[in-house]
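dumping this here so i dont lose it
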């Protein structure tokens, strides 16, 4: 999930020693009346498929003797395109082009085509060029068109040896976009306090989630069913062919780890090397993965950010012990519940406070920015106008209707979801009590997918079959792509090598100043030397 909602996004008593086990137990707990609910879910799934005009889900590439991604022939009008490379309008150091892709790769002649925006950073040492390295964006909902420039700047040795290419995946950015709500309409979804468990508040959250799901269908219904990770994997292979490459190397952080794993599963014969950084639990469902995020966001907040802030009380005045900082947080949040701050068009309430904290704890380098904003919120009437404006922009910047249109389309479409809202009311209350930072939004986010009238995409089961050794990176305290999920993904992707980054909770481990991590990645990409086994890289600040 790049900063997602996890985006994907998805109590102060949670601790590292027991939280992962507790989260796994909570995620796997069978709801009461399981058999009755299973029947209801089956009926709802059939109804959803009818509403979407889709066939029942199948396993991608089943019953064929070919690689799964090659099961459906690609019409020549797509494979014979020419990419008209021009300097990118927003980043002239890159070349940009567009390609045309089918709306549905399994029925390429049905429905209007899509436009996919693509980009390229040419290898700076053509004489030593090894090939093409494709990268994708996280989220779901992030844009990837300009990211090759960032990777080239952070990894000059890789930029010398590879053409680095990127794209805005279907549904976002300069590609054919999904539209759900306006910014003004979207404010209802984020309004109030997700911790409020009163019947009226719960009903309001569910109504707003249903409204968001319905608006996506009303405004983008002919596109929504085809915004899936599996369809994006086919887009990548079309791009590979138009580049004239027999094989690709791949770098994918966050949700892009899932895109890479799906691409490698569908097109294993097209993969040269693959680095998956900060990994989604792509061995299971989105529902299971997102049920683990409240624990991991709380762990990162309580065990990394709160002690950091307490050690700097002389600067930020939020308390000199973790207990004082947590108490201050609860007091400030309660005050925003009673009297939200309004700055221009931005309302800063308890949900916005939680969301800002979640976005800022992705990387420790953002801790000071979060601390300064918290100090400003404490003293809002006396803060200078420029600081108030900047703080308000930070609060408004984490989630947007544009981001969540893609986020919900992919996470609700890719894999099945429990559709019984009673289950989500119960789980939401449990997560709010145990892991309130992200757990409080469980009901709001899950109720969107519970209301999503689209059958899941074809199943893609990641196994690692016929792949070269794949390199995986993950920090132990990553809040969004938590380590426990990365371990499951690592087990599923047979033959992969996992680099565990200790003393660290950052989301995204490459490019990095950690010479252990960068050394492993670049020996793999540049010298074809994969580690013989899993290994650990300590963070510099830990030693």
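and the seq i came up w/
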């Amino acid at each position: 999930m790049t900063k997602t909602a996890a985006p994907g996004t998805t109590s102060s008593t949670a601790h590292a020693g027991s939280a992962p086990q507790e989260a796994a137990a909570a995620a796997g707990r069978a709801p009461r009346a399981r058999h009755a609910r299973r029947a209801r879910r089956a009926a709802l799934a059939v109804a959803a498929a009818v509403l979407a005009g889709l066939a029942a889900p199948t396993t991608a590439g089943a019953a064929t003797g070919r690689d799964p991604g090659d099961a459906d022939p690609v019409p020549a009008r797509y494979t014979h395109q020419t990419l008209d490379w021009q300097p990118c309008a927003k980043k002239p150091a890159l070349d940009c082009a567009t390609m045309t892709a089918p709306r549905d790769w399994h029925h390429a002649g049905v429905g209007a085509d899509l436009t996919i925006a693509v980009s390229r950073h040419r290898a700076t040492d053509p004489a030593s060029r090894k090939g093409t390295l494709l990268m994708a964006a996280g989220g779901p909902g992030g844009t990837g068109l300009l990211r090759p420039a960032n990777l080239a700047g952070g990894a000059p040795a890789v930029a010398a040896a590879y053409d680095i290419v990127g794209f805005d995946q279907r549904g976002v950015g300069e590609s054919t976009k999904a539209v759900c709500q306006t910014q003004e309409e979207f404010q209802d979804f984020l309004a109030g306090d997700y911790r409020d468990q009163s019947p009226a508040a719960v009903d309001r959250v569910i109504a707003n989630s249903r409204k968001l799901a319905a608006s996506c269908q009303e405004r983008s219904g002919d596109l929504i069913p085809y915004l899936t990770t599996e369809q994006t994997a086919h887009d990548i292979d079309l791009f590979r062919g138009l580049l004239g490459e027999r094989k690709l190397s791949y770098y994918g952080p966050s949700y892009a780890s899932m895109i890479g794993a799906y691409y490698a599963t569908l097109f294993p014969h097209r993969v040269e090397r693959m680095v998956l950084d900060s990994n989604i639990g792509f061995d299971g469902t989105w529902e299971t993965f997102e049920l683990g995020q409240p624990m991991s966001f709380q762990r990162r907040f309580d065990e990394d950010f709160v002690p950091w802030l307490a050690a700097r009380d002389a600067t930020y005045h939020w308390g000199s012990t973790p207990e004082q900082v947590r108490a201050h947080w609860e007091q400030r949040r309660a005050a925003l519940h009673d009297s939200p701050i309004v700055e221009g068009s931005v309302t800063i309430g308890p949900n916005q406070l939680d969301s800002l904290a979640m976005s800022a704890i992705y990387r420790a380098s953002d801790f000071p920015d979060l601390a300064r904003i918290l100090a400003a919120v404490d003293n809002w009437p006396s803060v200078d106008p420029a600081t108030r404006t900047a703080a308000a922009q930070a609060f408004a910047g984490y989630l947007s209707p544009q981001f969540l249109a893609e986020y919900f389309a992919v996470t609700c479409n890719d894999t099945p979801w429990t559709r019984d809202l009673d289950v989500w009311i119960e789980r939401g209350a449990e997560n709010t009590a145990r892991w309130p930072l992200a757990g409080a939004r469980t009901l709001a986010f899950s109720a969107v997918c519970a209301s999503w009238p689209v059958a899941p995409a074809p199943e893609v089961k990641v196994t690692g079959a016929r792949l070269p050794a794949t390199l995986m990176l993950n920090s132990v305290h990553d809040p969004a792509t938590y380590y426990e999920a990365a371990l499951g993904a690592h087990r599923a992707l047979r033959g992969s090598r996992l680099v565990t980054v200790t003393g660290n909770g950052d989301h995204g481990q490459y490019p990095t100043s950690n010479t252990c991590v960068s050394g492993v990645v670049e020996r793999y990409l540049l010298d074809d030397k994969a580690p013989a086994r899993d290994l650990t890289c300590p963070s510099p600040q830990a030693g």
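The two ends are 29 Å apart (CA to CA).
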